[in-house]
Amino acid sequence: MVNRWKLLVRITAAVLIGILLYGQIGPIAVEASTAIAKGDVSKNQIVITPFIWTAIIVGGSIIVTLSYVSWRKYKAEAKEVGKKDKSVD
Question: Residue 68: is it exposed, middle or buried by C-beta count within 10 angstroms (0-12/13-18/19+)?
């Protein structure tokens, strides 16, 4: 049980450090140049905006949380099935 908590703390710390580093290093301002010809710029270029990053992080956190809760519920129900009912009705 202690190992799971250590793993959870390490993963959480790694994710938070990654988010902080992206915030410090990631967004770099680039100035546009007028020397670019019209044919050089791709119209189908995919740009990941901060909103999309936020949606990915929040959605991923929700999915991980729901998966963990479901797994814990499954383990608890499996443990409960293994116990014999010794009560007298």
Answer: exposed
Q: Dump pLDDT digits (tens) for 68-88.
A: 999 999 988 888 876 766 666
pTM of the model: 0.41
- Cβ neighbors of 22 (< 8 A, separation 6 or more) are 53
Say how far apart CA 61 and CA 59 lie, in whole Å: 5
Start-end of H helices in 1-89: 2-25, 50-82
Reading the block at residue 57, the tokens are 């992080």
